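Working notes for the structural subgroup meeting. M.R. asked for a predicted model of this chain before we commit to crystallization trials. I am recording the input and output together here so anyone reviewing the notebook later can reproduce the run.

Input as submitted:
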Amino acid sequence: MQYRTGTATVVQGSPVVSGIGTAWLDNVKSGDSFVMAGVGRVYDVASVDGNEQITLTAPYQGADRTGEYAIQRDFTTDGIPEMSQGDIETAAIFTRAMRKIQALLGRAGAVAGTGAGVYADTAAGLAATSDQEFFWVPGAEAMTLYQNDSGAAVDSGQYPTSTTLQAAVDHMNAMEGRLLNVIASLHPELAESTLYLDFTTEAFVVQES
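Returned structure, recorded in token form:
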């Protein structure tokens, strides 16, 4: 559940958020998300400075404002926000969740799209490739993509293994069900319709029965 006790004050151009009647030290941590009610833009918490002060990772961009706020505290292991019935600013949080899911899918696509071979180590990869070609070297939890640069192996990034990707896919499937349940609870008028998620447009789609 979101933490929403008290009120918050934000100032345009400042990352510092002030609270009144808040108990942020015991209820908020670095990495949680912050959103002002009615604004629709989500920020990340960089530090909790006291019960009535937190600092965001980026300066607040909207107009000066005091009022209701929410701090999102529940996330999957992949950092995807989990929403609960009664949460506010669910559209903004839902959009952030969709974008994180898209990033996971993008990483999966990057792994599949290189066409590079897999070798036991960098020496074997260099021996089997020509200058500027790519090759993979597997690790325990990730595969490293290397480029043969004039006989030197240049690290071009790490990507999850098939086991890690499958775990992410399973996680996303479970998340889809939870997100749709929250949407349905927030919009009872859609009870006779079919809902599904569209990862491309970062939206949920209503299909009339």
